[in-house]
Design brief:
Elements: H1 3-14, H2 20-37, H3 49-61, H4 66-86, H5 112-124, H6 135-149, H7 153-157, E1 164-165, E2 170-174, E3 180-184, H8 187-200, H9 218-231, H10 240-253, H11 258-265, H12 270-273, H13 275-291
Antiparallel strand pairs: 1-2, 2-3
Helix pairs in contact: 1-2, 2-4, 5-6, 6-8, 6-10, 10-13
Length: 295
Amino acid sequence: MNEDVTHFLEFQLTEKNASPLTVRNYEAALREYEKWRGPEFGCWRDQTIDHFRDYLYSLMKRDMKRSTIRLRFAALRSFYKYMVLRRGLKKSPVAGVQMPKLEKTLPVVLSLKQMEELLDMPLKADAPVRGPAWLRHRDAAILELFYSSGLRISELLGLDVRDVDFSSEIVNVLGKGRKERRVPVGGAAIRAIQKYRQEAVVTNGPLFRSIRGTRITQQAVDLMLKKYLKMSGIPFGVSPHKLRHSFATHMLDAGADLRSVQELLGHASLSTTQIYTHVTTERLKKVYDEAHPRA
């Protein structure tokens, strides 16, 4: 790997406290650009603004999502910002590249009824033919915690038993940028976690585990969600992130203030949280159109 890239990735991990996932995404974005340039790449210091404008155009011709394009260029911008600050580069060749605006899409959320149906699925399901009986209780605890706290999938997977304070019903979370926050958890989720721990005899280490006793993976959670969706009447796909969207939207629907929801979600900027106000406004408009005689 190029020396400049190696130092940049080490800088992200050690000085910026970036998560390993963020660092892997940065590395992947840099490699993708190198691959696109091919034999003509040369080195990072030789790249020009025209190269990056051409790269942007090629990504847009491939009908790549604008959010994905912006993430790739965010990695490139971070890299060149580091090169200017720490590696003696005079100017970033990416700085002047104009990014396409994000598509205005609202997050998909489950209704309260759909959410309750999904939460009920694990304990309504038959006991697994293969694997221990406690798997149902683990799945129920995972779904309850997702909806109760609005955690990111990476945050939930990283939880250890010691991170859950059962007496105060608080979860200690290590979020983006390795920032710690304390998130309140509802009684239903706390009871579900306690039941799972009792059935699976989980006393320390990773909170949510596989049959082999190792920390559960994102792939396993995705498969688990698909399994219960098939059993339910919910007519669309649901990812862990949609459960986070549902948590935020339902909180705002019930009267929670935006700042509090921002803190709960671990958003650095209030503008990130504000998309959920658009969701609740759309729901209000729908109710109005259906109910008002002169709508």
